Structures are given as structure tokens and as C-alpha cells.
Amino acid sequence: GPDHRDTLAVRHSLAGALHDDGQYSESVPMFVDLHRRHVVLFAATDTDTLKVANSLALAYRDTGRHDEAVKLLTVVHAETHRLRGEKDPATLTVLGNLATAEALTGQPQQAVKRHQSIVDIRSETLTPLDPQLLSARKDLAIVLGKAGRMAEGLKEMKEVHQAVERTLPPHHP
Predict the structure, then answer these.
(1) Farthest-apart Cα atoms in the chain, separation
(2) What is the per-residue pLDDT across 8-62, written as a single tens digit (0 to 9) for each?
(3) Pick from 103, 88, 173: which is nearest to 140 by CA?
(4) Which of 73, 130, 165, 166 could form a disulfide with 126 if both were Cys (CB 3.0 to 4.6 A apart)?
(5) pTM of the predicted model, to two decimals?
(6) What is the pLDDT of residues 85-110, one digit of tens each?
């Protein structure tokens, strides 16, 4: 049926595909409806509901609705943190999404703090050349630049670039 978890999961994937294709006029209303249904059917704190809320927030972010994205991601991060803990990969992913949205709303210093926190946490458990850590460092470099700390951002980005060049094969796609 239309409200079965599996049906909703497929609709979530469809909304994501539409979003990735730039079909925002179709994807955003679909994400809104999916979020509403998940909240009613499963609760606002259900893990699938939080995943849908994260997707909706990214859709808001990508369509210029940055304040709405920050508001929703703040809630998603708080709940994900409460359910999974500070160092869980899902928590860190949502925190990164929140930081990026904050940078877009003119809060680059807050974004730097959050991205630095992600790098610090990932550094505790990942090797220096781990792709997740390098991605987190790249994100930090970008927001450092947006925060007017261009020299720091460039230094970080150059280090990430060198690390990626060392770890990927010469003809990596």
C-alpha cells in the first residue's frame, strides 16, 4: 500500500533521483509529503523519518531555502545525536550538512567550528588517508575560505589534494 515502509522507501529513492536530476519542482513536494507521512506513521524521531527529513533539508538547501534547511537540519542533528551519539557516521553526516547550510546563511564561522569538529572526530578513528577524513578536510577547507580565512583554507585544500593524489591510482575515474 501507499503507506507501507517499503513503498515509502522507494518513493524516497524516486524523490532523490528527481532531485539529483534537478527536477526540484517534483522532488521538493515529494520530500515534503514523505516527511509528513513518516512523522504521522512512524514518529518524528524514527530513523527513516530522520533520513527523509535530512533529504528534505538538502532539497531546501539546494533550492535556495537555506533558512528552512538550517532549521530542519538542526532538529535532525539533535535527534540523530541523541539516538546514535556524537561520533556515529550518520550524526557526522547530518552535522556536515548543517554546517554547509549554515555557511550559506551567512554563518561561516559556525560552519568552520562544526566542520573542524567533524575532522577532529574522524581523525580519532580513521587513518590520515581515509577518504571520509579527506572529504571532511576538503569541506573544512571550503568553509575556511567562505569565512575569510583563505590562507588556511588553501593550505588545507593543498594538503588534501596531495593526499588524494598519493592514494588514488593514476587513472582513477
Answers:
(1) 55
(2) 999 999 999 999 999 999 999 999 999 999 999 999 999 999 999 999 999 999 9
(3) 103
(4) 130
(5) 0.92
(6) 999 999 999 999 999 999 999 999 99
d(CA 122, CA 103): 21
> What DSSP designation does 43 have?
-
Torsion angle of alpha carbons 31, 4, 90, 35, nearest 10°?
30
Amino acid 47 reads: T
For residue 109, give the nearest of 67, 137, 147 by alpha carbon: 147
Residue 138 C-alpha from the chain's centroid: 14
Q: Give the whole-angstrom CA distance, residue 147 versus residue 159.
A: 19
Look at the alpha carbons of 131, 147, 103, 94 in this order and tell me if their dihedral is positive or negative: positive
Half-sphere exposure of 169 (CA within 13 A, CB side): 3
